[in-house]
Write a structure and sequence with these properties.
Chain lengths: ~260, ~140
């Protein structure tokens, strides 16, 4: 019984330390962001390079994926709407489900799979190879040089790519609406503008910012916390990716609840 | 001195004063080129112009006869070049001492300290700015 209580206490303490460490890390990153530390030219170079790797290199694939996946999805939605006779809610369904929920979610899942895992393993390898210690020994703050540019680049990338996905899906929606419902461009755009509120746009961008923050800060923290053992690298990536997945679900749930309350006001 | 004592001494120097370290425990960044590794310190810490930093690094690389390695990554260079790059990175930390920690671990083919002294002379670095840390049994190599 005593052993059990000790184990439980030890687990609780380690979980608390881990969570408090993570939030302290987030606060440090936020403080450096507010101080504009990323304007340091060495850090700014990393920021530009990271945007190139995270958003630009993915662009061709992303546009094709958005066009194909978005068109198929919106085609299915349109057929379903027509078959159950909810054509009058078409605008709300496109904006509410496809654009505001589906676009950021698909974007963030894609970026998490492609870039969060890469960033987690990169930082973990740097930690194991003592490259982060090397930076610190020369007075270079890893938060400013390594972490902050990656966080900002993820936020920018998720925001831009989600917006792009939304635009492509809306364009697909216009094509499908003209084919299935014989709708003109004017009626389609009027239907879309009537179905969106300022709150929706604010929540959409807030969500992309929060998504971008968490899918970068969680792998960075896990990479940074890796022990000086190469066997710890896969464990770190595993923990990081689980954390990213949990955060995506959590942000999605919170945004849905927020939208529900704001729209019912 | 034992390895633990050496590491403690190195940490003490680091805490006491600003020091540019050339050490087997302080690696170069593997995802950066030779030039980027050396220029990182002044680009991050100073407001010196990029063109001035570039000119200084190119001059040093020429003096140490490793200018052909300027765009190479760390895995593409031999141990001697690696040592030279670490030395140049340490020298980029201005107004500080340069600590060369266990040089024969990094230059494992060197019979004595003369090649390192030659490098320092080539770069016109006065002895007073350089501290060597090494094992007791390597005393005869100095």
């Amino acid at each position: 019984m005593r052993d059990f209580i000790e184990q439980l206490g030890s687990k609780a303490v380690s979980t608390f330390k881990n969570i408090s460490g993570f939030w302290a890390f987030c606060l440090k990153c936020l403080r450096e962001f507010l101080m504009g530390s990323f304007f340091n030219r060495a850090a700014f170079d990393i920021l530009v390079m990271q945007i190139f790797f995270t958003a630009y290199q993915l662009l061709n694939f992303f546009v094709v994926l958005s066009a194909v996946f978005g068109s198929i999805f919106i085609g299915i939605v349109f057929q379903t709407v027509k078959s159950i006779g909810l054509v009058q809610y078409l605008g709300n369904i496109i904006m509410g489900v496809v654009v505001l929920e589906f676009s950021p979610l698909i974007t963030v899942v894609l970026l998490a799979l492609r870039s969060s895992s890469a960033v987690n393993s990169e930082i973990a390898v740097m930690k194991v190879n003592r490259e982060i210690d090397a930076l610190e020994s020369f007075g270079i703050d890893p938060v400013i040089y390594l972490f902050l540019p990656r966080i900002i680049s993820f936020i920018i990338s998720v925001t831009i790519l989600s917006s792009l996905f939304a635009i492509i899906v809306l364009f697909s929606g216009f094509i499908f609406s003209s084919i299935i419902f014989e709708m003109s461009a004017g009626i389609f755009s009027e239907m879309i503008t009537k179905s969106i509120s300022v709150f929706d746009i604010i929540i959409f961008y807030m969500k992309t910012i929060v998504f971008g923050f968490f899918i970068s800060v969680i792998p960075l923290y896990n990479g940074w916390k890796t022990q000086y053992r190469s066997t710890d690298i896969p464990v770190s990536v595993l923990r990081g990716m689980m954390g990213v997945f949990m955060s995506i679900v959590l942000v999605e749930v919170v945004s849905l609840v927020a939208r529900f309350f704001l729209n019912s006001l | 001195m034992s390895e633990a004592e050496l590491k403690a001494r190195a940490a003490a120097i680091r805490a006491e004063q600003r020091a540019g370290f050339v050490s087997p425990d302080i690696p170069l960044l593997s995802n950066l080129s030779v030039y980027d590794n050396i220029s990182l310190v002044p680009r991050y810490l100073t407001t010196e112009k990029d063109s001035e930093i570039h000119a200084e690094i190119v001059k040093f690389l020429d003096l140490l006869e490793i200018s052909d390695s300027i765009n190479k990554k760390t895995f593409q260079i031999d141990s001697e070049t690696l040592f030279k790059v670490k030395l140049l990175r340490a020298l980029m930390l201005k107004d500080s001492v340069t600590v060369i920690d266990r040089p024969f671990v990094m230059l494992n083919t060197a019979a004595d300290i003369k090649p390192v002294e030659a490098m320092l002379q080539t770069l016109a670095i006065g002895d007073k700015n350089v501290i060597f840390l090494d094992f007791e049994w390597n005393k005869s190599k100095y």
